[in-house]
Amino acid sequence: MLDAALAPGGNALDAAATPSAAGGVRPCTIEDIPAVARLFRATFTDRLKAGGRPLEVLLRRELFEHPWRDPDLPSLVFAGPDGAVSGFIAVRPLRLLFDGAPVSAAVGGTLMVDKSIGNPVMGARLLRSYLNGVQDLSLSESANEISQVMWEKLGGRTEAAYSMEWLRVIKPAGLALASLTRRFRMAALLRPFAGVFDWCAARVRANPLRIDATFDEGSDVDAEDLVDALLALSLPYRLRPDWDRDSLLWFVAQASEKERYGPLVCRVVRDRKGGLAGAYLYCVRPGGVAFVLDIFAAPKSAERVVDDLFADAKRRGAVAIRGRVQPEFADLLLRRRAVFLHASSMVVHARRGDLFAPIHGGEALITGLAGESWSALIGGLFI
Amino acid sequence: MLNSEIETRVRAFIDENFIFAEEDAGLDGAASLLDAGLVDSTGILELVTFLESDFAIQVADADIVPENLDTIDAIVAYVASRRGASASVAA
After folding, report:
1. Cα-flanking dihedrals φ and ψ of residue A138, to 5°?
2. Which of B35, B45, B82 best probes binding to A when mutated, by most A CB atoms within 10 angstroms?
3. Which residues of chain A neighbour B42 with C-beta distances below 8 Å?
4. What ranges do the domains of chain A cover?
5. B3-21+30-90 sits in which CATH class?
């Protein structure tokens, strides 16, 4: 049975998956989707909205139509003695290359248990079963405080450099209003006043948050052109996804369904000679806080790319921009007046010690499209 | 290893890591650690790691159930059985 065969490095999933009398962990099957969806709805109530997409459709696509789906790396459910699903962890296979050599990895997330059952071993067993899977590298970029401690108890490490979010304010009053409106809808009545404040502030030359919205070195591109750029720009990373055109197109398509953050914008930035300087993709809508999934830059082009991003977000009416810190851009973002905040933690569990070197050295591409932020479960709205 | 020795070490670990009030010390061997809120999902993993390292046993995931880990008595019985199983295999 699954749980009984989990010596580190062993292939736990070769074993049969019959839950014990006390319940147990087994691979998630397509028949479990309605139960997993029910659990998700009970756990993440803030992501539900009338008019949203059916959660079952999304789960089926992300878990069973994933381009790197691997029967040896299934998502897992905790099933009680009666077979009822009371816990779940999403396991998304990730094909990585480390200095050109393949590495088996899996991103674990959406760990949830039925709290009404009051069985604290469920979450522990789900996480332990996942970490004892066949992959060499396990990671999550969405660990909350409890999950983070659980990962650490199981030998995982928190990667502080990847556990921060940056925030760059564009319109201070607009940002304050956007935050307020999330709690009190009536606060939207203050919009004209916020607009006047920010209009005036933008014209003060000494304003340290001023952004030159005329800076425009990039162009909007479709997913196909973005993918061409990303395939080239991801090559310098020592640890990076083994993307091909089809798989990367699939990840970008998932990332385009984040209704809470706004429509996805893909841009490619060129240098003065027309060469590829960088690319980025982010969700943005007027009056909202833009959400950056990834920034890529060719050597010595980071400033050009980030400045284009800021200017583009301002032109589109965002009140601020945020994204997960990528270590290679941290210094530049600080110089560009971004503030860093703790976000959900990036936790990593590796069977091979050498895999930590590129992560600690900021030479790993393991977040955003490479991690789990592409998932529509993050930023999407469901029924 | 005698069960009393196992119990002493388990109690010491629980006292040190999960008991924060003086009056909770000297826990009844049959008292539920889970119901008392002394051990949560993080604590379970901590406890399992302790058992594996301190008693040189392998705790299978299927064994991570309240029946084995919810009380000091249950933990002692589980460790004794695992150590017995290991000894049998070694012999």
Report:
1. -115, 140
2. B45
3. 124, 146, 149-150, 153
4. 2-159, 164-170+211-343
5. mainly alpha
Read off the pLDDT of residues A252-286 as tens digits, 9 standing for 90 and up. 999 999 999 999 999 999 999 999 999 999 999 99
Annotated domain spans of chain B:
3-21+30-90
- The amino acid present at B79, given as its one-letter code, is V
Decide if pLDDT at A2 tops 50: no
Topology adopted by domain A2-159: Aminopeptidase (3.40.630)
ipTM metric: 0.80
Q: Which CATH superfamily is domain A164-170+211-343 in?
A: Gcn5-related N-acetyltransferase (GNAT) (3.40.630.30)
In a mutational test of the A interface, the residue from B13, B18, B41 whose CB has the highest number of chain A CBs within 10 Å is B41
